[in-house]
Amino acid sequence: MKNKWFYRLTWTALVLTFAVVLLGAYVRLSDAGLGCPDWPGCYGHLDVPDEAHQIAKANEAYPERPVEAHKAWKEMIHRYFAGTLGLLILAMAALAWRNRREPDQPVVLPVLLLGLVIFQALLGMWTVTWQLKPVVVMGHLLGGLTTLSLLAWLALRQGRYSGDAVIAQARSLRVYAVLGLILLVGQIALGGWTSANYAALACPDFPTCQTQWWPPTDFQEAFTLWRGLGVSYEGGVLSNDARVTIHLMHRLGAVAILLYLGWLVWRLTVAGSRILRWAGIAIGVLLAVQLSLGIANVVMQLPLPVAVAHNGGAALLLLALVTLNHLLRPETAT
Question: Which is nearest to 188 in space by CA: 144, 223, 155?
């Protein structure tokens, strides 16, 4: 076992990152993303104003965004968790640098993670100060899941199990596993774009959309990433046709993921390796659950627990694909 303290920090940070991703989804989906109109505090406080004079002062400073304590606390709890994660990753980077001359001590990836978490903090700030700008909200989601994936890779590469045992049997699957990971990231990005533009209920029926198989669409407006600053995107600013377009593309992406990962699961189950067979089963189960949650979101009109679980399912499926890629590759320096 490599540096045990670094290994423990990595796993702790991994679990905490998953919690931060879920909390971020909960904040976004409960419309609490602007619960605190400033950053990093909340109405100038490190917690939420609760006394009458504090609330009056906060409302005077932000008349367009009066204090809603229940939303503000959701946002601040998310920030507390994210801040703790940042400190953990800072400790990992410092420990890695201190032990950089020790054999098998990862250095590049911990330092990269530190840079990523700093950029994530900037995205969190811009999410608030740029008033839920969709490209920033989507980027913040992808940054969180990238952090999760890199921590998972780091933890797996330090563990006892290496992918060497399955390489001879499944070398040809490496490219397919990477492609599956890329396709999944693209689908997650589409899901983030759907959520950030309030398009999750643009198609309230299933499997049709607004009772049609292909309703009117507007691709140009739907996928315009930058619309300038000074606009509040809370509640969305797109036309109905643009939101329908985004939703439809996310549905089509789900079909593509189902077909490709379904095929990959089949390849894994016949690969001849017991561990790859179990990896395939895990991916298949997570895929089925994730698709069921997506359909439930439409049919049940986006209930908050189901919507948050859909985000969690995407994160777990991503971790499963990261694990598969680890299994299919020999131990390398990280």
Answer: 144
